[in-house]
Amino acid sequence: MAASMNTTFGMLFDAVVVGAALYGAGCVQGYMYFRKYHKTDPWYLKLLVGFILVCDTFQVGILTACVYQYVILNFAQVEILVMLLNTLIIEIFFSDAIALAVQMFYCWRLWRLSQGNYFVVIPLIMFSLGAFLSLLVYSCLSLQFSTFEELTSLKNLSMTCNILAAVSDILISSAMVLFLQKAKNSHKSTNSMLNRLIIFTFNTGLPVSFCALWACISINAWPTTFIYMFFFLLQGRLYTNSLLVSLNSRNYIKKGKNVLTETAPSYVMRPYPDSRGDVVPGSRGSKVSRDVQDDGGIAIRINTTTHTDIEFADDSASSKVDV
């Protein structure tokens, strides 16, 4: 495929359009997350979501400004089109930070799912760090270049970055699926929840791996075009949506969770008369069970239902449901 405006800056424009759509979806997911979980989730999860949304915003803004400078401000100026703007490379730093943060989150979740199996989690962390450092080196070296032609000298390093990212995502998803499959038992509700988790694991891990693999394929098949940049530049937004969808889907996944019912002790509430002298057992519309005691009191039995979240259970609850 010969290089042309369609296969070079046309692909950058497509990356801006598709990336903006994914960014909008991520913002909606972020709004939904903070609206539903701002009081229940720990501070570090909220900090993670905020950090990723900020990085995603910078990434979209920088990429949009870069493409605008190429095709609008310097329209038809060939000497500018061959130049490599530093802003296009700076955008990669934010994408790299998003990828590392999301993969570390998945490794943390896998560590809890595997009950602290370091032999599984540590290699995955090393792969993620390898992908992060290789892309960091690629970005730092790219800042020294002034033309796109010089950037092609880092073709092998670019392939290494994408391969490591794809391998990390595939290994993390595969390990989670294996542990979730292993956690299945004779309880139908538990297995239904685990099946939903397995489906979500595949759905959130495959898009990023797909883009990374296609970036590797396209840089070899069409090295003089920017087709590989199209897939490469979308990975940050896909990581963001992957994390937020995973967090916001917990209510759906919980429909099949384990429910442990505990019966608490009975408490006695003294009756009080209303304006007509009748005994009112409680507030209007109360649905508590009542038994009249010998002393005229009302016995209220409170049934407490404890819900355990498979992904974000507290340490105190992890002993009840081990998955």
Automatic annotation (TrEMBL):
Q: Which key words are in the record?
A: Membrane, Transmembrane, Transmembrane helix
PANTHER family listed in its UniProt record: CHROMOSOME 1, WHOLE GENOME SHOTGUN SEQUENCE (PTHR40465), DUF6534 DOMAIN-CONTAINING PROTEIN (PTHR40465:SF1)
| InterPro entries xrefs | DUF6534
Q: Which residues cross the membrane?
A: 12-34, 46-71, 83-106, 118-145, 157-180, 200-220, 226-247
- A Pfam cross-reference name: DUF6534
Write the protein's name.
DUF6534 domain-containing protein
In the record, which residues are listed under signal peptide? none
DUF6534 domain boundaries: 165-252
Q: Which domain of life is it from?
A: Eukaryota
